[in-house]
Amino acid sequence: SPISAPDISKCTRGTNLNTQQPLDVNCCPPVSEKIINYKLPPVKTMRFRPAAHLAGKEYIAKYEKAVELMKALPDDDPRSFKQQANVHCAYCNLTYEQTGDSDTKLQVHNSWLFYPWHRWYLYFYERILGKLINDPTFGLPFWNWDHPDGMFMPDMFARKGSPLYNPLRNPNHFPPAITDLRYFGQEAADQSKVIQNNLVEMYGAMVRNVSKLEDFYGARYVTGTKPDPGAGSVERGSHTAMHVWVGQATPTGEDMGNFYSAGREPLFFSHHANVDRLWSLFRGLRSGSKPRDFPDSDWLDSNFLFYDENAQLVRVRVADTLENEKMGYTFQKVDLPWLKSRP
Ligand code: C2O
């Protein structure tokens, strides 16, 4: 049966997945008795997600303001930056037991829940920010690391003193360092090939190596499945590489390179906005009779809990995530040079 929302009142101290030791932080959310089944609100105004490297001054100022306000919310407010970061930790660091199988822990990564779960996570994060600045059109910037012009840390995140800055990053990877979508801890021997290799990596993950849906989405994951049944192409490749590339300021990868701390990294949300965009692009590229997503209710009926922008605990379903426009946001259109980068 599909993964069902966890009982958050049974959240326990999680595991640091880089060290396999118990976490030294508690990332359980505030508990709430009342849970509402979430219905996508009718779309009145579309939110617009710009490419981070193309965003203008005014937009950046607005985004900085929103994150500043989120960081200023009290720690026990489920919409605060701290609690929002903990959401990621709680759903990956084995703090929840699965509903229906109390012996098995919930972990949304490395499985077919990767795209839909993160879509919901960003969805509410974005709506909370939009509400804080009173802007229903606010959309998160996406880090366009699949385009050569976006293959560096976006400048807005690299300014000391900005709420988007984070000192816990690899100091060698601030601009103008080129992002390496195949980075797993070693700098590429030939830096002049990195951009071309990045495009080839994207072509493989989006087109060439994804004939079956699982190849792209990740492996089936239902009640009783042990954590990490298998990641899809982007999750395993460029997505994880960028986590490691940004993080690594400490031996255990904080912030971005460790699951429990990744949500503390403001850049995380632009990184994942790009992953989210790649999901939409993938569906668009599947033409003709090729299925775009799993028809199984074991996937579509999977559900999770999040706090919405009004601090209400809501239950959300995978079935509602399939079209970003229906969720009220679109992405800036940019060229896809990797589409022509067949090796
Ligand atoms: Cu939830 Cu990029 O990991």
Quick description:
This protein has 343 residues and is of the alpha/beta class. The protein has helices at residues 57-72, 81-92, 114-132, 194-208, 213-217, 233-246, 259-262, 266-285, 297-300, and strands spanning 15-16, 21-22, 35-37, 47-49, 97-98, 101-105, 303-307, 313-317, 329-331.
CATH superfamily, by name, is Di-copper center containing domain from catechol oxidase
Give the overall form: globular
Give a quick account of the main beta sheet: strands, pairing sense, barrel closure: 3 strands, mixed
Helix content: 25-40%
Strand content: 5-15%
Q: What is the number of independent domains?
A: 1
Span between N and C termini?
40 Å
Protein name: Polyphenol oxidase
Keywords: Copper, Disulfide bond, Metal-binding, Oxidoreductase, Thioether bond
Domain Tyrosinase copper-binding: 79-283
Domain Polyphenol oxidase central: 293-343
Give an account of the 3D structure:
The protein is an alpha/beta fold. It has helices at 57-72, 81-92, 114-132, 194-208, 213-217, 233-246, 259-262, 266-285, 297-300; strands at 15-16, 21-22, 35-37, 47-49, 97-98, 101-105, 303-307, 313-317, 329-331. The chain has one domain (8-340): di-copper center containing domain from catechol oxidase. 32% of the residues lie in helices and 9% in strands. It has a three-stranded mixed sheet, covered by helices on one side. The chain has a two-stranded antiparallel sheet with strand order 1-2. It has a two-stranded parallel sheet with strand order 4-9. Helix 1 crosses helix 3. The chain is globular, with a radius of gyration of 19 Å. The model has no long low-confidence stretch (mean pLDDT 96). The structure holds CU-O-CU linkage.
